[in-house]
Amino acid sequence: MSVISVKDLSMDYGSGIIFKDVNLDIEKGESVFLIGNSGCGKSTLLRCMNGLAKPTSGEVYFSGQRVSPDNDDIDSIRCHMGMVYQHFNLFSHLNVLENIVLAPMMVLKRSKAEAISEAKKLLERVAMSGRENAMPSELSGGQKQRIAIARTLAMHPDVILFDEPTSALDPTMVEEVENVISSLCEEGMTCVIVTHDMSFARKSASRVIFMAENGIYEQGTPAAVLDNPKKLLTRRFLYHSRMFEALLDKENMDILTLNSQMKKFLSKFKYTQTQYEVISSICDEFLYPIMYNKKNDIDTIGVRLMCSESSTAHTILLSVPQAKSDPLEWPYTDPISLKLLDHYTNVILSKESNDTGYEIYIQM
Ligand SMILES: Nc1ncnc2c1ncn2[C@@H]1O[C@H](COP(=O)(O)OP(=O)(O)OP(=O)(O)O)[C@@H](O)[C@H]1O
Ligand SMILES: [Mg+2]
Predict the structure, then answer these.
(1) Cα separation, 45 vs 169, whole angstroms
(2) Whose C-alpha lies nearest to ligand 1, atom 2?
(3) Distance between CA atoms of residues 84 and 162, nearest Å
(4) 245 or 171, which is more confident?
(5) If phi over 0 gives left and psi between -120 and 50 gives alpha, with beta otherwise, what is residue 53?
(6) Is the CB of 214 under 6 A from ligand 1?
(7) Residue whose CA is closest, atom 10 of ligand 1?
(8) How far is residue 226's CA from residue 205's CA, in Å, rounded to a whole number?
(9) Residues 175, 321 within the same domain
(10) Are residues 143 and 258 in the same domain?
(11) How far is it, in rounded angstroms, from Cα 273 to Cα 24?
C-alpha cells in the first residue's frame, strides 16, 4: 500500500482551477520533490495531503486512511505526517528542548525523561547538541529550521512534508539544512519536498514532479526531468530557474537589495566565496557608477545572472541599452574599478556593442 495516495484531486479556491484530477502514489522510502512556478499549487497539494486544505473534489489516503479536514481521525493521522514550513513555526516562548519534547509528552504520552533523552539524540542528529537551553530568538534561521526538523522527527512520523524548507534562509545557511534533509532521504524517510532549488532536487530526489497546466505536467527521476526534460514547459521552467533577471532604473534602484538577491540566487548552485565578492564589486563598482555617470544619460540597465547547474562557471550579463560609448570606460566607469576586477583571476570580462547599446559579459 502506498504511504500517500492522491486520487483525482481537484482544487479551486473560487478564483479559478489550481489543479485538476491529480493522481499520485508515493511509496515508502521515496523522496519526491515538487517543483514548478510560483502559484502552480505545490503548497496547496501538500496541504491537501495532510488535510490542512479541503480539495474541491477527489481524495487523499494516508496508509489507506482517508485524509480530510472533516475526518474525525484527522488529528491522529496528522501525527504520522510531519510538516516543516518555510518559517520554522517554533514556539518562541519555549527553549529548544521544550520545543522538541512538548508534542511527544502531550500527544504520544512519553515520560519527561524519555522525551528529553530522545530530544538530545535528535539534537545530535541535526548537529545542534549543546543548544538545549537556547531560545529560538537566539538562533540563526538555519539553526531554527534544524530544530524544527528535530521537533518533527520526535513524533516518529511515517512521512515528512517540507514546504520550501530553505527559502527563508540566509544563503550561507541553506546547505546545513539541506544536508540534514538529504540524510533523512538517504536513510529512507519518506519525504515530499517542495523546493525552488534544483541542485537540491538533483542531489536528493528519487522522483521529481514538475507541476504546470493545472496538474502534474512531467515526472521522473531527477536525471530524466532535470537533465533531459521531454516537454516544453519543463524545459522553459528549468531554463528560467537557472537565470535571475532584474531591471534597474533610476526610479527603482536598490543596489543593496539587488546585491543580496543575486547572492541568494547564486547560493542555489555551486559557487565560490569569491563569486560573492565579485557580485558585490559589480554592484558597487559598475552598476552604481554607470547608472549615475557624469553625463547622466543612462536610465536602465538589465542585469542577468545565468547559473550553471553542474559547475561554478556562472555568468553575469549587463545590458546597457542607452550607452553611446563603452560603459566600461570613462565617463561611465572609473579605470580603477576595472583594476579591481583584475584582482579576481577567474573573472573574464567581455563586451559587445550593437544598434541598441552595449552588453557586458562577466564570466566568473
Ligand atoms: N487559502 C487560499 N485561498 C484562496 N486562494 C489561495 C489560497 N491558498 C492559495 N491560493 C491560491 O492558489 C494558487 C496556488 O497557491 P500555492 O500556494 O499552492 O502555490 P505554490 O505553487 O505553492 O506557489 P509558491 O511557489 O509561490 O509557494 C495561487 O494562485 C494562490 O493565490
Ligand atoms: Mg508554496
Answers:
(1) 23
(2) 13
(3) 5
(4) 245
(5) beta
(6) no
(7) 13
(8) 11
(9) no
(10) no
(11) 40
User: Which residue is closest in CA terms to ligand 1's atom 17?
Assistant: 43
Determine the 3-state secondary structure of 220 from DSSP.
strand
Domain that holds residue 272: 242-363
Given 204, 237, 270, the domain boundary residue is 237
Looking at residue 115, its pLDDT comes to 97
Q: 55 in ligand 1 pocket by Cβ < 6 Å?
A: no
Same domain, 299 and 320: yes
Q: Which atom of ligand 1 is nearest to the CA of 164?
A: 27
Find where cell 501525527 sits.
Answer: 79
Question: Does 18 contact ligand 1 (Cβ within 6 A)?
Answer: yes
Mean pLDDT over 66-74 rounds to: 88
Q: Are residues 186 and 264 in the same domain?
A: no
Point out the ligand 1 atom lying closest to the alpha carbon of residue 53.
Answer: 1
Task: Count the domains in the chain.
Answer: 2
C-alpha cell at 212: 504546470
Q: Looking at the DSSP assignment, which residues form a beta bridge with residue 249?
A: 300
Taking alpha carbons only, the member of 159, 91, 98 closest to residue 123 is: 98
Q: What is the pTM of this model?
A: 0.83
Cβ of 195 below 6 Å from ligand 1: no
Residue 171 has pLDDT above 80, yes or no: no
Q: The domain spanning residue 159 has which CATH number? A: 3.40.50.300
Distance from residue 39's CA to the centre of ligand 1 (Å): 5
- Name the closest-CA residue to atom 9, ligand 1: 44
Report the CATH number at residue 294. 3.30.565.10
Predicted confidence (pLDDT) per residue in 286-302, tens digit: 998 888 887 888 889 99
Mark whether 246 and 338 lie in a shared domain.
yes
Which of these three, 205, 237, 269, is where a domain ends? Answer: 237
C-alpha to C-alpha distance for 26 and 30, rounded to whole angstroms: 7
Asked if residues 54 and 70 have their Cβ atoms less than 8 Å apart, the reply is: yes
| SS3 call for 131 | coil
Closest Cα to atom 16 of ligand 1: 41
- 216 and 285 part of one domain: no
Task: Give the per-residue pLDDT at 339.
Answer: 84
Q: Indicate the residue type of 112.
A: K
Assess whether the C-beta atom of 38 lies below 6 angstroms from ligand 1. Answer: yes
State whether 184 and 292 are in the same domain: no
Residues 312, 179, single domain; the answer is no
